[in-house]
Specification:
about 70 residues; globular
Length: about 70
């Protein structure tokens, strides 16, 4: 449900000056992750995530989002 979504701001204060590290930490520990394959930053965080049940990314050719496996090319 959308009402169950939790954002970083709901659970923790911002890490002043370390926004990128806090984002990386959130991606590594999220239960579901949406990412861009063009972002090495998010792809690395996703590959280090051992708890996510679902990974999604854009499929530009099909004009949709699709699930993917973090450890396949």
């Amino acid at each position: 449900m959308l009402s169950d979504l939790v954002t970083r701001a709901d659970v923790v204060e911002d890490w002043a000056g370390l926004d990128f590290l806090q984002d990386f930490h959130a991606l590594m520990n999220a239960d579901m992750v949406g990412t861009s394959p063009a972002s090495g930053f998010s792809v690395l965080a996703v590959r280090l995530n051992t708890r996510a049940r679902l990974f999604i990314e854009p499929d530009v050719a099909a004009r949709r989002i699709r699930p993917f496996e973090a450890w396949t090319p």
